């Protein structure tokens, strides 16, 4: 085995931003097509692979993770209820690498496999495909589905014919699946979808997401001849900016199409409406419903009415209702009023509106009937499954499917009966062997941050854990886009917990634990609150006796790479080890990537002096200093990542390896057949988790065998 990873040459490029000179020693690494860069990355990947596989106990840990992952005969998710009575869903057997699409006959319970991505033709041996979404037609005769190869998220669309069991000839590539996944029209012969432009191969990466368009497609027509129906410059469309993402949404039982504009990765959207029958007409005009100043983040439709989740005059959000024929937010009826809880989701069913609310971290569900002056009423969840969310609801069917969860046991999938007002177990989820350990517990704490703000902290561990400061602990966090980590349980976590390890989640600013202000207090110029909150949570774990700095590891991924990267560069003494997963670590150069411009609303732009200084403050790469005793760091990235370029991890690896004075390892784990983690196979996830946890345990000096 090589004794050391390859050393990256230093080739300084200097940029000047608003009078500030910034030296970049590894700018050349941004060219991942360069033979020199490819060779260095391959050398790093090989060294990391050899090192990780040689860690004592790594193979045993992988075997345990695989055993725990196979504890239930299958997993099932993404359920679609259909008025025909049948259910459609993703299902993955314990021994399968990817999920497949099934149909279940409701009266008989007979199940039929519809779409199996493992049968798709491959262009290379290690290639794999995953289904990113499916949509059942109104008459249940067809299924639209999107698929992508090897975690690339380069999504193409096909139409599966249920009568023949074959795909129809229609194929549409360059699908904008994130923001504009297809919706069927009532005729079951046409649908709307979002698509990216075709751009030249030599176009700058920043062109990739510009001027996306929404189209109407009738089965059998040539998509290359289609005219956009909702897009920049399209007939009847409102003005749109280059980084706006337009989508058209069709709701069952409504005669209205809703045009949604997502402004980059900003959470607040603009909404327009148009009768479905007018779609594609050159004379049709979109009716404005709301714009960015209305702070609307989500919506649902019932007939001629639209329900809006808004933070305007309600920092923790409320739900209002207005007409689609004559929308007017000034006179909109308040359906779920603002309160101490955070309203975070909504779903319309035939009998009622179902709203998700958070009071702290767990999520509850309120039911609001459609009768005049209806009062929001909480749905009682099982006591040992304190958190719940609506898994499936539609305005042409009563009730809803509700999925429950907790930190310490697997949840169930229930059907809420609109007549009896009871939860009925669907029995669709099998009880796994490791789904209900009686030796686990969780605690909700509050940590005091640098400015006195109280930050929620969830801690999961064995009931018999001694608070002696000698327990290996892994603290994770995210802190972006207003996203909140709700309680969840994954049996593979037992591989860490059963040996006396602690798992903790810091609900830092930048997330949505306390509504819109909590999000805005951790983005752009206030972004330092994100990693300072994380540091405060780490300090709280130490002060409370859960762990100690030499036993503490931290992790963050994607936008959470800012959190963990800046935490270890600001407080390297507080952590023994860290994982940076597909991390945003060079924020001054992020804007030059395909996914950079859409993220300007969240992080800022170097073209403005104040926001440049904010980006510099949050950029891990630029805060690494020579000679500092940094923790051991494992950076992980998939080469096919379309969201965060792998060169961000490469540059940060090179800088950390050159700078650290601790003698602790800095490894760059590279997966050549994955991307941002979306679309990875079961085995890829198991292998990565075994590598990450064995690395962290190695650095926390914990080589004990699991105490089962």
Structure description:
With 708 residues, this protein is an alpha+beta fold. It has four domains: 38-68 and 434-699, 3-Layer(aba) Sandwich (Rossmann fold); 74-171; 174-294, Prolyl oligopeptidase, N-terminal domain (Methylamine Dehydrogenase, Chain H); 296-431, Prolyl oligopeptidase, N-terminal domain (Methylamine Dehydrogenase, Chain H), CATH 2.130.10.120. The strands form nine sheets. It has an eight-stranded mixed sheet, with helices on both faces. The chain has a four-stranded antiparallel sheet with strand order 3-4-5-6, with no helix packed on it. α2 (58-69) crosses α10 (682-699) and α5 crosses α6 (560-570). The two termini are 34 Å apart.
Topology, pairings included?
Blueprint: E1 13-17, E2 20-24, H1 35-53, H2 58-69, E3 74-81, E4 87-93, E5 100-104, E6 111-115, E7 129-136, E8 142-149, E9 156-161, E10 166-172, E11 183-184, E12 190-195, E13 213-218, E14 228-230, E15 244-250, E16 256-263, E17 269-275, E18 287-290, E19 296-302, E20 305-310, E21 318-323, E22 333-336, E23 342-348, E24 352-358, E25 363-369, E26 377-378, E27 387-392, E28 400-405, E29 413-417, E30 422-425, E31 440-448, E32 454-462, E33 473-477, H3 494-497, E34 502-506, H4 516-520, H5 528-543, E35 552-557, H6 560-570, E36 577-581, H7 600-603, H8 609-618, E37 632-638, H9 646-659, E38 666-671, H10 682-699
Parallel strand pairs: 33-34, 33-35, 35-36, 36-37, 37-38
Antiparallel strand pairs: 1-2, 3-4, 4-5, 5-6, 7-8, 8-9, 9-10, 11-12, 12-13, 13-14, 15-16, 16-17, 17-18, 19-20, 20-21, 21-22, 23-24, 24-25, 25-26, 27-28, 28-29, 29-30, 31-32, 32-34
